[in-house]
Design goal:
Elements (H helix, E strand, L loop, with lengths): L2 E5 L7 E3 L5 H4 L10 H7 L3 E4 L4 E5 L8 E5 L7 E2 L6 E5 L2 E5 L3 E6 L9 E3 L2 E3 L9 E6 L6 E3 L4 E9 L2 H4 L11 H20 L6 H5 L4 H4 L29
Length: about 250
Protein backbone atom coordinates (compact mmCIF):
# COMPACT_ATOMS: atom_id res chain seq x y z
CA UNK A 1 0.00 0.00 0.00
CA UNK A 2 1.01 3.63 -0.45
CA UNK A 3 1.75 6.00 2.42
CA UNK A 4 2.38 9.58 1.29
CA UNK A 5 3.61 12.54 3.32
CA UNK A 6 2.72 15.91 1.82
CA UNK A 7 5.08 18.42 3.43
CA UNK A 8 3.67 21.90 3.94
CA UNK A 9 5.44 24.36 1.61
CA UNK A 10 8.31 26.15 3.31
CA UNK A 11 8.78 23.37 5.88
CA UNK A 12 10.86 20.23 6.11
CA UNK A 13 10.38 16.94 7.90
CA UNK A 14 13.02 14.47 9.03
CA UNK A 15 11.47 11.00 8.94
CA UNK A 16 13.06 7.55 8.84
CA UNK A 17 12.19 3.86 9.20
CA UNK A 18 12.24 3.12 12.91
CA UNK A 19 15.45 1.24 13.78
CA UNK A 20 15.43 -1.95 15.81
CA UNK A 21 18.25 -0.79 18.09
CA UNK A 22 17.85 1.18 21.31
CA UNK A 23 20.58 2.73 23.45
CA UNK A 24 19.21 1.23 26.66
CA UNK A 25 19.16 -2.21 25.02
CA UNK A 26 22.76 -1.73 23.87
CA UNK A 27 23.78 -0.99 27.46
CA UNK A 28 22.32 -4.19 28.94
CA UNK A 29 24.87 -6.92 29.71
CA UNK A 30 25.52 -8.96 26.54
CA UNK A 31 22.77 -6.91 24.86
CA UNK A 32 20.38 -9.39 26.42
CA UNK A 33 17.27 -7.35 25.56
CA UNK A 34 17.75 -8.03 21.84
CA UNK A 35 17.07 -11.70 22.51
CA UNK A 36 13.43 -10.70 22.94
CA UNK A 37 12.32 -10.85 19.31
CA UNK A 38 8.86 -9.28 19.93
CA UNK A 39 10.62 -6.25 21.41
CA UNK A 40 12.97 -5.79 18.45
CA UNK A 41 10.19 -6.27 15.88
CA UNK A 42 8.00 -3.71 17.64
CA UNK A 43 10.89 -1.22 17.73
CA UNK A 44 11.09 -1.22 13.92
CA UNK A 45 7.36 -1.42 13.17
CA UNK A 46 6.84 1.93 11.45
CA UNK A 47 8.57 5.27 10.97
CA UNK A 48 10.00 7.87 13.34
CA UNK A 49 9.81 11.65 12.97
CA UNK A 50 12.90 13.40 14.33
CA UNK A 51 13.42 16.70 16.12
CA UNK A 52 14.70 19.45 13.85
CA UNK A 53 16.34 21.24 16.79
CA UNK A 54 17.31 20.53 20.37
CA UNK A 55 15.51 22.13 23.31
CA UNK A 56 14.74 21.88 27.01
CA UNK A 57 11.19 21.93 28.39
CA UNK A 58 9.96 22.36 31.96
CA UNK A 59 6.43 22.19 33.40
CA UNK A 60 5.77 24.18 36.58
CA UNK A 61 2.80 22.00 37.56
CA UNK A 62 0.10 24.46 36.52
CA UNK A 63 -2.71 24.25 33.98
CA UNK A 64 -2.06 27.40 31.94
CA UNK A 65 -0.39 27.46 28.55
CA UNK A 66 2.65 29.25 29.95
CA UNK A 67 3.07 26.57 32.62
CA UNK A 68 5.28 24.80 30.06
CA UNK A 69 8.49 26.67 29.30
CA UNK A 70 10.43 25.67 26.19
CA UNK A 71 14.02 26.88 25.70
CA UNK A 72 15.59 26.13 22.31
CA UNK A 73 19.30 25.49 21.96
CA UNK A 74 21.51 28.38 20.80
CA UNK A 75 18.62 30.77 20.33
CA UNK A 76 17.05 28.61 17.64
CA UNK A 77 13.43 27.66 17.11
CA UNK A 78 12.08 24.75 19.13
CA UNK A 79 9.74 22.32 17.35
CA UNK A 80 7.44 22.12 20.40
CA UNK A 81 5.50 24.39 22.76
CA UNK A 82 2.86 24.41 25.48
CA UNK A 83 -0.22 24.59 23.25
CA UNK A 84 -2.99 22.88 25.23
CA UNK A 85 -2.05 23.62 28.83
CA UNK A 86 -2.33 21.05 31.62
CA UNK A 87 1.30 20.01 31.31
CA UNK A 88 1.10 18.95 27.66
CA UNK A 89 4.06 19.50 25.35
CA UNK A 90 2.97 19.78 21.71
CA UNK A 91 4.93 19.11 18.51
CA UNK A 92 3.43 20.39 15.27
CA UNK A 93 4.00 17.94 12.42
CA UNK A 94 4.33 20.04 9.21
CA UNK A 95 2.82 17.61 6.73
CA UNK A 96 -0.38 15.81 5.76
CA UNK A 97 -0.19 12.04 5.59
CA UNK A 98 -2.28 10.10 3.11
CA UNK A 99 -3.09 6.41 3.43
CA UNK A 100 -5.06 4.28 1.03
CA UNK A 101 -8.84 3.94 1.49
CA UNK A 102 -9.76 2.12 4.68
CA UNK A 103 -6.47 2.72 6.49
CA UNK A 104 -5.84 4.98 9.49
CA UNK A 105 -2.54 6.22 10.87
CA UNK A 106 -1.54 5.29 14.41
CA UNK A 107 0.47 8.16 15.89
CA UNK A 108 2.38 7.55 19.12
CA UNK A 109 5.63 8.19 20.88
CA UNK A 110 8.78 6.33 19.82
CA UNK A 111 8.23 2.68 20.72
CA UNK A 112 10.26 1.31 23.65
CA UNK A 113 12.07 4.60 24.21
CA UNK A 114 11.19 5.53 27.82
CA UNK A 115 11.80 9.15 28.79
CA UNK A 116 11.99 10.48 32.33
CA UNK A 117 9.32 12.91 33.60
CA UNK A 118 7.26 12.89 30.39
CA UNK A 119 5.16 10.32 28.50
CA UNK A 120 3.89 10.28 24.90
CA UNK A 121 0.19 10.29 24.06
CA UNK A 122 -1.27 8.21 21.22
CA UNK A 123 -3.81 9.07 18.55
CA UNK A 124 -5.50 7.35 15.60
CA UNK A 125 -6.24 9.48 12.52
CA UNK A 126 -8.35 8.78 9.43
CA UNK A 127 -5.66 9.82 7.00
CA UNK A 128 -7.41 8.45 3.92
CA UNK A 129 -9.61 11.57 3.76
CA UNK A 130 -8.76 14.20 6.41
CA UNK A 131 -7.12 17.40 5.05
CA UNK A 132 -6.00 18.27 8.57
CA UNK A 133 -2.53 18.13 10.04
CA UNK A 134 -2.07 16.66 13.51
CA UNK A 135 0.07 17.30 16.54
CA UNK A 136 2.20 14.90 18.54
CA UNK A 137 1.66 15.45 22.25
CA UNK A 138 3.56 14.45 25.35
CA UNK A 139 2.20 14.66 28.91
CA UNK A 140 4.58 15.76 31.67
CA UNK A 141 4.47 13.31 34.58
CA UNK A 142 6.54 15.34 37.03
CA UNK A 143 6.69 19.12 37.49
CA UNK A 144 9.79 21.26 37.79
CA UNK A 145 11.96 18.71 36.00
CA UNK A 146 13.94 19.67 32.91
CA UNK A 147 13.22 17.40 29.94
CA UNK A 148 15.63 17.32 27.00
CA UNK A 149 14.89 16.59 23.35
CA UNK A 150 18.03 16.50 21.24
CA UNK A 151 18.28 17.44 17.58
CA UNK A 152 17.71 14.27 15.58
CA UNK A 153 15.94 12.55 18.48
CA UNK A 154 12.67 10.80 17.51
CA UNK A 155 9.55 12.33 19.05
CA UNK A 156 6.85 10.57 17.04
CA UNK A 157 6.20 7.07 15.67
CA UNK A 158 3.66 6.36 12.91
CA UNK A 159 2.25 3.19 11.39
CA UNK A 160 -0.83 2.48 9.26
CA UNK A 161 -3.60 0.25 10.61
CA UNK A 162 -6.67 -1.04 8.79
CA UNK A 163 -9.77 0.81 9.97
CA UNK A 164 -12.36 -1.28 11.76
CA UNK A 165 -10.17 -4.35 12.02
CA UNK A 166 -10.14 -4.24 15.81
CA UNK A 167 -13.94 -4.13 15.85
CA UNK A 168 -14.09 -7.25 13.68
CA UNK A 169 -12.15 -9.24 16.29
CA UNK A 170 -14.31 -11.69 18.27
CA UNK A 171 -12.42 -12.10 21.58
CA UNK A 172 -13.14 -15.06 23.82
CA UNK A 173 -11.79 -16.69 26.99
CA UNK A 174 -11.31 -20.45 26.96
CA UNK A 175 -9.57 -23.08 29.08
CA UNK A 176 -6.28 -24.31 27.68
CA UNK A 177 -7.45 -27.91 28.10
CA UNK A 178 -10.08 -27.29 25.40
CA UNK A 179 -7.24 -27.30 22.86
CA UNK A 180 -5.31 -30.52 23.56
CA UNK A 181 -2.60 -29.92 20.96
CA UNK A 182 -1.93 -26.38 22.13
CA UNK A 183 -1.85 -27.62 25.74
CA UNK A 184 0.60 -30.37 24.79
CA UNK A 185 2.94 -27.86 23.12
CA UNK A 186 2.69 -25.46 26.08
CA UNK A 187 3.33 -28.24 28.60
CA UNK A 188 6.38 -29.34 26.59
CA UNK A 189 7.68 -25.77 26.52
CA UNK A 190 7.09 -25.29 30.26
CA UNK A 191 8.99 -28.48 31.12
CA UNK A 192 11.83 -27.62 28.74
CA UNK A 193 12.08 -24.09 30.08
CA UNK A 194 12.17 -25.22 33.72
CA UNK A 195 14.89 -27.73 32.86
CA UNK A 196 16.83 -25.11 30.87
CA UNK A 197 16.67 -22.58 33.74
CA UNK A 198 17.90 -25.23 36.17
CA UNK A 199 20.77 -26.22 33.86
CA UNK A 200 21.79 -22.57 33.48
CA UNK A 201 23.12 -22.75 37.03
CA UNK A 202 25.29 -25.77 36.22
CA UNK A 203 28.86 -24.86 35.15
CA UNK A 204 29.74 -26.19 31.71
CA UNK A 205 26.16 -27.20 30.90
CA UNK A 206 24.69 -27.10 27.41
CA UNK A 207 22.26 -24.45 28.64
CA UNK A 208 25.15 -22.19 29.71
CA UNK A 209 26.72 -22.59 26.29
CA UNK A 210 23.42 -21.80 24.55
CA UNK A 211 22.70 -18.87 26.97
CA UNK A 212 19.03 -18.56 26.01
CA UNK A 213 16.32 -20.61 24.36
CA UNK A 214 15.83 -19.61 20.75
CA UNK A 215 12.66 -21.52 19.84
CA UNK A 216 10.47 -18.49 19.21
CA UNK A 217 13.31 -16.61 17.52
CA UNK A 218 13.84 -19.55 15.15
CA UNK A 219 10.13 -20.06 14.54
CA UNK A 220 10.25 -23.56 16.02
CA UNK A 221 7.60 -25.32 18.09
CA UNK A 222 8.49 -26.66 21.60
CA UNK A 223 8.71 -30.22 20.24
CA UNK A 224 11.21 -29.15 17.57
CA UNK A 225 8.82 -29.02 14.62
CA UNK A 226 8.79 -25.99 12.34
CA UNK A 227 6.03 -23.52 13.11
CA UNK A 228 3.03 -23.47 10.80
CA UNK A 229 3.54 -19.79 9.94
CA UNK A 230 5.50 -19.40 6.72
CA UNK A 231 6.13 -15.68 7.23
CA UNK A 232 7.91 -15.77 10.59
CA UNK A 233 10.28 -12.80 10.73
CA UNK A 234 13.32 -11.97 12.80
CA UNK A 235 13.74 -8.47 11.34
CA UNK A 236 11.79 -5.90 9.37
CA UNK A 237 12.83 -4.06 6.23
CA UNK A 238 10.70 -0.93 6.36
CA UNK A 239 11.18 1.29 3.32
CA UNK A 240 12.24 4.94 3.70
CA UNK A 241 10.09 7.72 2.30
CA UNK A 242 11.10 8.60 -1.26
CA UNK A 243 12.24 12.17 -1.75
CA UNK A 244 10.65 14.29 -4.50
CA UNK A 245 12.20 13.45 -7.86
CA UNK A 246 13.46 10.05 -6.75
CA UNK A 247 12.71 7.14 -9.04
Amino acid sequence: MKLSAYVVDGHTIDIRPAPADREWMDNIDQRFAYRCLPLSIANAHGWEILCTAGFTAVWDGGRALDAVTVTPDDGGIAPALGHFGYGVLTFHVPCLFRTEAGFDLMVSGPINRPKDAIAPLTGLIETDWAPYSFTMNWQFTRPRTAVRFEKGEPFCHIMPVRRGEIEAVEPELRSLSENPELKRQHDTWTANRNRFNTDLRQPGSEAQAEKWQKLYHRGVMPDGEAAGSADHRTRLKVRPFKKPGAG
